[in-house]
Amino acid sequence: MMNEAIYSHIVTGNYIFTKGPLQPVPGGQFIERWRENEGAVWGNVYYVNAPEEIRLHGHLGMQGAVNSSYTYRLIDKDGATLLQLSHTASGIIQEDWEPSHTEGWKYLLGTLLKNYVEKSIS
Question: Which of 21, 45, 54, 118 fits a disulfide with 28 by CB distance 3.0 to 4.6 angstroms?
Answer without folding.
Answer: 45
